[in-house]
Amino acid sequence: MKGLRFERARTRLAWTGALLAAVFLSLLAWTTRSIVRSTTFADIDEELYTLSVALGSSFELDWGIGTAAPHGLAPDALSHAQPAPPFSLA
């Protein structure tokens, strides 16, 4: 390492301190990022669950349980289908 020859102790001490401070601050930033990210995702998940419950309740209030769904389709439309007539050659 000819390019980084530190002749004086003060220069070595300054560079070592700067390097250790950079490593410490990097670890601190990474830890803070992880904590903020996990907290944010937990809050978003909670809010999405609340929104889904509210939307489900709104649909139940608007259309009622067991009544016609939007676009005139009954929830059990396929259960009222007529059977197909038997095939005949006549």
Beta-strand percentage range:
under 5%
Largest sheet: none
The count of DSSP E runs of length 2 or more, i.e. the number of strands, is 0
Query: Roughly what percent helix?
Result: 55-70%
User: What is the multimeric organization of the chains shown?
Assistant: single chain
Topology:
Layout (H helix, E strand, L loop, with lengths): L8 H55 L27
Question: Can you tell me about this structure?
Answer:
- This protein is mainly alpha-helical and 90 residues long.
- The chain contains 1 helix and no strands.
- It is elongated.
- The protein has a domain at 8-40.
- It has one helix spanning 9-63.
Q: What are the salient characteristics of this protein?
A:
90 residues, mainly alpha, 1 helix, elongated
